[in-house]
Design goal:
The protein has helices spanning 2-21, 30-41, 43-80, 95-149, 155-183, 199-209, 211-217, 235-252, 283-286, 310-320, and strands spanning 195-198, 220-224, 230-233, 258-266, 269-277, 324-330, 333-341. The protein has 344 residues and is an alpha+beta fold. 14% of the residues are buried. The model is unreliable at 299-307 (pLDDT under 50). Strands 2-4-5-7-6 form a five-stranded mixed β-sheet. It has a two-stranded antiparallel ribbon with strand order 1-3. Residues 87-117 form a coiled coil. It is found in: Membrane.
Length: 344
């Protein structure tokens, strides 16, 4: 800019000199005595003075413009913290800054909205859990009161009441565990403790542990895999991921159906595919299935689902392993696919 200004000043000076040389000037002329004569005698000095004056004017104009830009950006930055969704407007010269600030603002608004929605779902679940705690607790108290008050109750009836009380107490324990799971939930605290494990043996053990639940719903497991496949992972956390997906498959599968688990070795890792036969999950629910505190069954009760943390935590654990997890559902089938890369 300084070079252009200097060149322009010199060209302007030469042009003015050329124009003025076309006129005849006399020695006693005021303009000639006080302006043209000094310029002709000291042209470099005159150009230098003009350059300095012009440079100062340009700096002042530019500085004023810069101050204006700074004030505009500062004012716009205050809008980043506002909750309104109006776009930030800046001068045309700051178009790139405007686009970046709008991206930041939209991202902030989206994150704030998601956080509020998660907090609302969390609060709703706490209310639901608190409400549902009353039912098994009331039943336990009722049956224990009967056992305590009725001294001549038959052994068969006593056994029945004791069994019902035990079932309700177990349900009560599950609800309390869900409540604690919600209150202590903090994904940022998850860390990995990696070790080598035969993933095939892990699934054989998991499917064996689910056998009682399978028998209740007349379900079957089909495990398709090589004889042995080692991966490096946090065994405890990955067991939690697999347990959660299998448990969901058992809970939502049609009776007399098969849950298929297919494990494949990929070029740089492994893929694990879970498929079960159950009601097709609507697309809008599929898109939100990994959100914190989101439950497929949005009904008031909690008997058909946990606290809505399982899949959110599962996704976080898989991503901590630099892997991916996805879900799809169509034609009364639900498919989860996990990819885990080879970790060094």
């Amino acid at each position: 800019m300084v070079v252009l200004f200097t060149v322009g000043l010199v060209l302007t000076f030469l042009f003015v000199e050329f124009v003025l040389s076309m006129f005849t000037w006399y020695a006693d002329n005021f303009v000639y005595d006080f302006l043209l004569s000094p310029i002709n005698e000291h042209p470099i000095l005159f150009l230098s003075l003009c350059w300095i004056v012009g440079f100062i004017i340009i700096v002042l104009i530019s500085w004023k413009r810069i101050i204006y830009y700074f004030d505009t950006i500062i004012e716009a930055s205050n809008e980043l913290a506002s909750s309104n969704e109006d776009l930030i407007r800046l001068p045309r010269e700051l178009k790139q800054v405007e686009e970046q600030m709008n991206q930041i603002k939209q991202s902030s608004i989206k994150n704030d909205r998601l956080a509020k929605e998660a907090e609302q779902r969390k609060n709703d679940l706490i209310v639901y859990l608190a409400h549902d705690l009353k039912t098994p607790l009331t039943s336990v108290i009722g049956y224990l009161t009967l056992l305590n008050d009725e001294q001549e109750i038959s052994n068969e009836l006593r056994q029945k009441y004791t069994s019902i009380s035990l079932d309700k107490a177990i349900r009560l324990e599950d609800l309390i565990n869900e409540f604690f799971e919600i209150t202590r939930f903090n994904l940022s605290k998850l860390t990995l403790e990696l070790s080598q494990v035969n993933v095939i043996r892990m699934f054989e053990q998991l499917t064996f542990e689910f056998q009682p639940l399978l028998n209740e719903k007349k379900l079957a497991f089909q495990l398709i895999s090589p004889d042995k496949l080692d991966i490096k992972c946090d065994v405890g956390k990955m067991e939690r991921v697999f347990d959660n997906i299998i448990r969901n498959a058992v809970s939502y599968s049609f009776p007399d159906s098969t849950i298929t688990i297919e494990i494949k070795e990929e070029s740089k890792g492994i893929s694990i595919r879970f498929e079960n036969e159950g009601y097709t999950i609507p697309e809008e629910k599929v898109n939100r299935i990994f959100e914190q505190f989101y439950r497929l069954d949005s009904s008031r009760g909690t008997n058909t689902g946990g606290a809505g943390l399982g899949l959110a935590i599962a996704k976080e654990i898989v991503e901590l392993h630099q892997g991916t997890i996805s879900v799809s559902s169509s034609d009364d089938k639900v498919v989860f696919i996990i990819y885990l890369p080879t970790l060094s």
